[in-house]
Write a structure and sequence with these properties.
- By secondary structure, the chain is of the alpha/beta class.
- It folds into 2 domains: 132 residues, Urease, subunit C, domain 1 (Roll), CATH 2.30.40; 271 residues, Metal-dependent hydrolases (TIM Barrel, Alpha-Beta Barrel), CATH 3.20.20.140.
- Helix content is 38%, strand content 22%.
- It has 16 helices and 18 strands.
- The strands form 3 sheets. Strands 6, 7, 8, 9, 10, 11, 12, 13 and 14 form a 9-stranded parallel beta sheet that branches.
- Strand 12, helix 9 and strand 13 form a beta-alpha-beta unit.
- The longest helix is centred in the N-terminal third of the chain and has 17 residues.
- It is globular, with a radius of gyration of 21 Å.
- The protein binds guanine and zinc ion.
- Keywords: Hydrolase, Metal-binding, Zinc.
Length: 437
């Protein structure tokens, strides 16, 4: 067993439902050999109960739960930053030419390595990853996540229309390849399978029906896709499906339930929000992507009023990086810009959205999302370099809520000093390894 000493900050209870920050300024956490937190409290009290454990000291900054990214594309890590285009132009000119390159297995392996590095460096410990159109590339993704020790849910991206030909498949082939991937990887270590039609714009009813078969037959699999992202795209989907609402194009095939995460949902009608809420499905809010592509301002208030579960996604590569601190800050900005229609977000809301809400969306809330006894020790040590503006800000913070706001406002991936998944340290920062004594 190991005893960690740190400033602990987490959100065990939803701040949108009356919860708030939980903090232990000089905290202690005991982690057993299985990576499970067995004790937590003021360091002095925990130490008194565990006088013989090795202590890992994490002085300065703060220790947060590992971040949970509910929407991030592995084949797009090398095209982050393609600015200046709306969704369909960006797909044609930026994302899809790169995605076609993943037909080459060696290339895909390199991309998977870059992608995993991006997640780990950002402190992301769990992710719902949009895969590749090529099964061999998805194998590479699963393998890279397995080696890194990340909690990753991913799968084959499928489409049978409207994209460049090398990215298209057929319902039968998609089903066969998906079942093969699920057989090889679903339930292996921390990995799970995600049924992933790219979006209804590029998937016929027959393809969605083949997705439904995999979703039903692979117990515990996840479903993910895009929805209501861009006004032109939304109108096209309505036309293609004879006037059907976008969410309903998936729901009509049984693809919308508690194991479903739909990305964006910037332009929903109330009927869709009601359906998402009644089915217990989640929405991945991707604020930097929505800004970069000019997709729109996310109607968080309407999601909350309808009772739809919402978490954060980086949406790399339309999103501008892996940091969920940056996504949290951008979510805050956009709600501010909505003025009276927006939700006034505190740093507690941002931390919830970046951690526990994501764990909930991915069905991992019993295992991760906060630093409670009984959960896996998935954690991120945020430690700014001495004298940098975040370090100065933390030294002058008026409260824990204020200190955490500074972490969201000023924190970058270079401030991530340590990352743990299930008690295993998977990354150590630039300055030092944590001292043990
Ligand atoms: N809709 C369909 N594919 C994509 C994608 O790769 N990124 C985003 N942001 N939206 C999409
Ligand atoms: Zn996306």
């Amino acid at each position: 067993m190991t005893l960690y000493r740190a400033r602990l900050v987490d959100t065990p209870v939803d701040p949108f439902a009356g919860g708030g920050l939980r903090a232990e300024e000089d905290g202690g956490i005991v982690v057993d050999e299985a990576g499970v937190i067995t004790a937590r409290g003021p360091f002095a009290a925990v130490r008194a109960e565990h006088p013989d454990e090795v202590v890992i000291d994490l002085p300065g900054g703060m220790l947060l739960p590992g971040f949970v990214d509910t929407h991030v594309h592995f084949p797009q890590v090398r095209v982050i930053g393609g600015l200046g285009m709306p969704l369909l132009d960006w797909l044609d000119q930026c994302a899809l030419p790169e995605e076609a390159r993943l037909a080459d297995v060696a290339y895909a392996k390199g991309v998977a390595r870059d992608f995993v590095t991006g997640l780990v460096d950002a402190g992301t410990t769990s992710a719902l990853v949009f895969g590749s159109h090529f099964a061999t590339a998805v194998d590479s993704m699963f393998a890279a996540a397995d080696v890194a020790g990340l909690r990753v849910t991913t799968g084959l991206v499928v489409s049978d229309r409207s994209l460049r030909p090398e990215l298209l498949s057929t319902p039968d082939r998609a089903y066969g390849e998906a079942r093969g991937l699920a057989e090889r990887w679903h339930g292996h270590g921390r990995l799970r399978y995600a049924v992933t039609p790219r979006f209804s714009f590029s998937a016929s009813d027959a393809m969605l029906e083949s997705c439904a078969a995999t979703f039903k037959e692979v117990q515990g699999s996840w479903f993910t896709s895009h929805v209501n992202e861009n006004l032109f795209e939304v109108a096209e989907v309505r036309r293609l499906f004879g006037g059907t609402n976008y969410v309903h194009t998936y729901a009509n095939h049984g693809l919308v339930d508690r194991n479903s995460v739909l990305a964006h949902n910037v332009h929903p009608v109330d009927e869709e929000l009601a359906l998402l809420a009644s089915q217990g499905a989640s929405v991945a809010h991707c604020p930097t992507s929505n800004s970069a592509l000019g997709s729109g301002l996310f109607p968080l208030r309407r999601h909350l009023d309808h009772g739809v579960r919402v978490a954060l996604g980086s949406d790399v590569g339309a999103g501008t990086g892996f940091s969920l601190l940056k996504e949290g800050l951008q979510a805050y900005f956009m709600q501010q810009l909505l003025a009276a229609e927006g939700v006034a977000l505190t740093s507690a809301h941002l931390l919830w959205l970046a951690t526990a809400a994501g764990a909930d969306a991915l069905g991992l809330a019993d295992e991760v999302g906060d630093l409670s006894v009984g959960k896996q020790f998935d954690a991120v040590w945020v430690l700014p370099q001495a004298g940098n503006p975040l370090d100065v800000g933390l030294g002058n913070a008026r409260s824990t809520l204020d200190a955490l706001a500074k972490v969201f406002a000023l924190g970058t991936t270079t401030d991530i000093e340590g990352v743990w998944v299930g008690g295993d340290q998977i990354a150590a920062g630039r300055f030092r390894r944590p001292a043990s004594r």
